Predict the 3D structure of the following.
Amino acid sequence: MGGKSDSDAHEREAESDLLQRLPSFFIIGPPRTGTSWLHSVLRQRAWLSDPTKETRFFDRHFDRGLEWYRSHYRQADSGRRIGEVAPTYFASPEARLRIARLMPQAKIVCTFRNPVDRVLSLYRLKRAYGLIPWTFDDALVQDPELMESSRYGTHFKAWLGTFGNAQVMATIYEDMLGDPQRYLDQLTDFVDVPRVKLGPQQTRRVLASESMTEPRNYRLTRGAARLSEWARARRLDTVVAKAKGMGLIKFFVGGGPAFAPIAIAKREQLYALFRPEVEKLEELLQRDLSAWKSLERGAEFLSADSRCG
C-alpha cells in the first residue's frame, strides 16, 4: 500500500512540476494578423516554442501528451515567462477548453484585422505553401478554417467566457501598423514580459502575402509540406528548421504566377458576409470598426500586408 501511495504521490508531483513549466500566455491570432512579427520580437524576452513556431498541440496534437509539448521548451528556465504564438487556437473550442483545464490562469491575446484582407492573406499563404489546391472561391467552401477563423465576435466571446475579461486582451492590427512600439508595450505589459525596444529592422514586414505567388509545382510543394509535417510529428523539428535556415524553402514555396486579383463584387460579398461578426466584436470591444464593414471604408487598408505578416 505504501509503495503504491508513494508512487502516486511521485507521479502527481512530476505532473505538477511539468505544468509549472508550461506557457503562462498565448497569442492566439486568428492567423494572418501579425503573429509572425509578434513571434520575432517576443522571443527576445520570453521563451517561445522552438524550433517550431506553432506546435498545434492544443488543437491538433493533444494526443501526443504533455511531454511532447514540453519538448518544445527544453531551454526554458525560471528566468523568463513561457508563451506560445498559436494563431490556429482562436477558432478551436477544443484548444480553448484544454488550455483552460491545464492552465486556467493563462493570459490570452487575440489579434484582429479587417476580415476580408485577412481571409485573402490566409488563402494566399495556404496556397503558396501547397496546403490547399483550390481557387479562392472554392477554398471558401472547401476549407473550413478560412470562414471559421473569421467568426471574430463568436469566438472572442467564448474566450472571454472561459477565461474572463482580466485574462483576455484584444488588439487591433491597424494599431500595430500605426504605432508598433506603443502596441507592443501594451501587449508585453499585459502578459508580464519585459518591454522590447524596437529597432528600425523590427518594424519591417515579416511574412507578407502580397509578395507570394502560386506554387511553381503544386505536387512538389504539397509533398514538401507533408514531409515537414511528418518530421515534426517525430520530433524532428530541428531538421525542418535547419532546412528552412539553409534557404531550401525557396525551392518549394511560390515561384509560380501571381495570384489573380479578387473581383470587387466578391469583396463586397465578403464584407456583407463578415459584417455580423464584426458588429459583435464592436459591441464586445466598444470600439468603432466601420472600416471592416464595407469596401469603401476598408479600401485604405487593402495593402496592410506590406508591413506585418
Q: What stands out?
A: The chain has a mean pLDDT of 83. Residues 15-121+148-207+267-306 form a domain with the Rossmann fold fold (CATH 3.40.50.300). The chain has 14 helices and seven strands. The longest strand covers residues 107-112.
